[in-house]
Amino acid sequence: MKAVRKVLVRALVKEFYKANTGFFLVALGLVFGFLKTAQHVDLTSFLAVKPFYYLVVLALWLLYAAKTLSFVFTVKRLPNNSWLSYLVLLNPFKRLMLVLHIQALLFLPILGYSLFMTAITIQLNQWTSAVFVISGNLILLFAATYMLERRLIRPVDAKLQIGFRGFTNRLPKPFPMLFVHHLLNRQSILLLGTKTASLIILVGAIWIFEMEGTDLRLLNLGLLLSAAVNAAFCFHYHQYQQRELSLYRNLPIPKNLQFVWYGLSYLILMLPELLVFFGNLGLTIPTLFLLKSALLPLALLLFYHCLFYLKGIDMEDFIKVVFFATAILFFVILGRIEVVFISGLFLLFSYFIFQKRGQESAD
Fold it and tell me: What's the distance, CA 256 to chain centroid?
């Protein structure tokens, strides 16, 4: 069994970290490049006092777990790794313990940071938060172990498709979800990095508001900056639309419905931010204000998306538009202009561009 463990570590664990060196460099840059040790302690202390925010951390851990499972599933399909299917010959309990060890090694980054978070929560005597962190990690580890063990002992079917299309064929795939599946499977680093930066900005804005306790404009500014970070998805959505969604160009789908579909896509992408926004402020801020504020990032992302239907817009021009739009709106919001008016204006601009230039650009 010891020899099998060494071979699995070499074939799966070492190859995983080697193949994802770029991912870990980006993650380390985002997590430790912008935040010092004292700031990590402050952030963890804030999470310990408000356990609801652990759902954001858990969502990031889920994305990482999906990445580890996707890597192992892909590696198993390689011809030189067909021997992995023979793990079914091992004793079931010993095999499960072996796979648990492999999955724990793949989970080392999140288990290490979770241990740090647990230590801080215990120091603060926040035992509920400590139990939440420990139980959440254990549940995720055991669930990933079970899925990995089931897949490793399953024979490889050469007829099954590999990659994005093979994955989405087994999932519900309405149009608004197609780009989300693409990000999860093809651009997970972009998704993880963007969402991490966006949530840090939004949580910071909420934190400052709760310290001040009066100026609601801080919340709108947080959503504005969050939309600017998420604008990166608009460029990649446009590229994905040109490469993968050409079939939809010739289908008799009303343009109004297409516009709604794109809006739903960005709504799904903004769900982590909206859950944090409503979950933390839903009991203290009027619901109507929260709804009007939540419309701002959705309207801006739709507007940024529709910009690519204009001829002559490249990535450099797009970055300039996002920068200047964010800078101008920053002062507009400070000027106490009603945010629902801003959102409505950008929705009208988006709809007008989409109706006039959307089909022309697609052709």
Answer: 28
